[in-house]
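Hypothesis: this fold can be encoded by more than one sequence.
Test: take the structure tokens below, design a sequence, compare later.
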């Protein structure tokens, strides 16, 4: 006889490996390390109300959901909740209970609209629909084998340098300014129009899986104009976390140069698989990634639900 005792509780440090495994199971395009999960749950921003709930079935961690308020925007009352359950333990109530716990937590902190990414597969989309989530934007994942040759680098425009983000370790504000401008133009339901330097500094810049040596900055006449931010699992998988270019420097191929150099460095460092994600309406970046050799490997849809 199979027991189905389900427990939903808060994340503990000892859960990190199991939660990372559930996050990646069946979704090799998602790059997440246990170290990054530990960091996410250890750092505290009182404005975010971040929390991770873990599902146990018969004492085994089988899934988790991470949730919090969306920061960096003037839009209020928006939260996100994203999680997963090991495939062999699905359809036993864990995902439903995890999402309900996230909804209760965020509703208690003023969230009136919750966003959750759903795998672009019939079962996942049906799960969201049955729980009141309406479909929003679509994202496409691309994967690339880094053991295969990369394209030949285009001619670099005069005055352009490619430098690692380690050059800004003492003062990363110039890189923040690039991101703060570029992210305003990112497709999506929420306008990211209020990125805060301190939050970025202690958030994106402080992530343990951020590889500053593989994060490449395109510098024009001494000024950071574009960059591609690289995260890794520390073993063999690389994730293109964000690529940004200031408006006045767009159309010069700087993002292409930075991404190519980052992939070249990653391959030289022994990383074997690279992954990225883009909104399907972001034609310029999709074209860059296609040129780099990325091929579509998965998709996801934004699920949106109002909370009372």
């Amino acid at each position: 006889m199979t027991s189905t005792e389900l427990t939903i509780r808060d994340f503990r440090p000892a859960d990190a490996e199991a939660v990372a495994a559930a996050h990646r199971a069946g979704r090799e395009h998602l790059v997440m390390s246990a170290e990054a999960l530990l960091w996410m749950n250890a750092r505290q921003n009182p404005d975010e109300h971040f929390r991770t709930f873990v599902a146990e079935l018969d004492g085994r961690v089988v899934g988790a959901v991470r949730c919090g308020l969306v920061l960096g925007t003037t839009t209020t009352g928006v939260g996100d909740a994203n999680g997963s359950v090991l495939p062999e333990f699905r359809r036993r109530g864990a995902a439903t209970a995890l999402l309900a716990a996230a909804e209760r937590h965020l509703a208690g902190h003023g969230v009136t609209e919750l966003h959750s990414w759903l795998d672009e597969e019939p079962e996942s989309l049906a799960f969201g629909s049955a729980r009141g989530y309406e479909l929003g934007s679509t994202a496409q994942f691309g994967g690339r084998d880094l053991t295969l040759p990369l394209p030949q680098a285009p001619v670099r425009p005069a005055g352009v340098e490619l430098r690692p983000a380690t050059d800004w370790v003492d003062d990363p504000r110039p890189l923040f300014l690039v991101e703060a401008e570029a992210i305003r133009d990112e497709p999506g339901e929420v306008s990211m129009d209020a990125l805060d330097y301190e939050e970025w500094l202690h958030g994106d810049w402080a992530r343990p899986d951020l590889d500053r040596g593989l994060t490449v900055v395109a510098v024009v006449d001494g000024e950071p104009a574009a960059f591609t931010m690289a995260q890794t699992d520390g073993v063999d998988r690389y994730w293109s976390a964000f690529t940004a270019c200031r408006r006045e420097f767009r159309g010069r191929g700087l993002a292409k140069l930075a991404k190519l150099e980052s992939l070249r460095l990653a391959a030289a460092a022994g990383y074997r698989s690279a992954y990225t994600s883009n909104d399907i309406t972001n034609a310029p970046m999709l074209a860059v990634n296609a040129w780099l050799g990325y091929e579509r490997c998965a998709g996801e849809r934004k699920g949106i639900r109002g909370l009372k």
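The chain has two domains: 6-111, 144-299. The longest helix spans residues 254-268.
Hypothesis status: open.
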